[in-house]
Amino acid sequence: MIARRAASGNDALAVSVWVRLLKAHGLVLRQVRRRVPEGLTLPQFDVLVQLHRSDEGMSPGELTRVLLVTAGNVTGIVGRLVAMGLVERHPVPEDRRAVRVRLTARGRRLMRRAIPRHRRDVAALLSGVSPADLGRLRGLLGRLGRTLELEA
After folding, report:
1. Which of the 8 DSSP states describes residue 37?
2. H or E element, residue 92
3. Contact present, 80 and 65 (Cβ < 8 Å)
4. 41: Cβ contacts below 8 Å, ≥ 6 apart
5. Domain ranges (residues) in the chain
6. Which of these, 11, 34, 97, 98, could form a disulfide with 92 (CB 3.0-4.6 Å)?
7. What is the per-residue pLDDT across 102-135, written as a single tens digit (0 to 9) for each?
8. SS3 for 75?
C-alpha cells in the first residue's frame, strides 16, 4: 500500500512537471513567434537558423532529424524559402537523387541580422529567472533530453 502511494505520488509529480513544461513551452513559443523576422513563420526561421550553422548546407533528411519534424514539413518549408530567395537546393554530384540545402547570400544577410536579435529577445523573455536558476534548468533539461533520447 505504501509503495503504491509512493508510485502514485511519483506519477503525479511527473505529470505535474510535464504540464509545467508544456505551459512554459507554449508561453515562450507564443512570444518568440511574434518576434521572428517579418514575412517568416517560426518553422521557416528554425530551418534558416540550422542552415546558418552549416556552411556546407544540409540535406532535407538532416533538417528533418535536427528539427524533429516530418520530411513532408521540411519539403514544404524549404520550397517556400526557395521561392522567397532565401535558400537554394544544390544537387550532390556523387548522388543525383540527393540535394543539399544552403542559404543564399540574401538568406545569410537576413540571418546575420536576425540571430542576434533573436538571442536578445529570448534573453529578455527569460530575464525574470536568475542566471543561476537558468543554469540549473539548462542542466536538468539536458539530462531529461538525454534520457528521452536513449528511450527513443
Report:
1. P
2. strand 87-92
3. no
4. 77
5. 1-35, 36-151
6. 98
7. 999 999 999 999 999 999 999 999 999 999 999 9
8. helix
CATH of region 36-151? 1.10.10.10
Asked if 67 and 47 touch (Cβ cutoff 8 Å), the reply is yes
Indicate the burial class of 68 (C-beta count within 10 angstroms; 0-12, 13-18, 19 or more). exposed
Tens of pLDDT, residues 87-103: 999 998 888 788 999 99
* Ramachandran angles phi, psi of 85, nearest 5°: 80, 20
Phi, psi of 90 (to 5 degrees): -120, 130
**Neighbour count for residue 47 (Cβ, 10 Å):** 29
- Give me the amino acid identity at 41: T
- DSSP letter string, 96-143: EEEEEEEE-HHHHHHHHHHHHHHHHHHHHHTTTS-HHHHHHHHHHHHH
Structural element, H or E, at residue 87: strand 87-92
Would you state the cell numbers that stand for residue 38, as one nine-digit string? 517579418
Asked whether the CA dihedral 111, 114, 120, 125 is positive or negative, the reply is negative
Would the pTM of this model clear 0.90, i.e. be above it? no
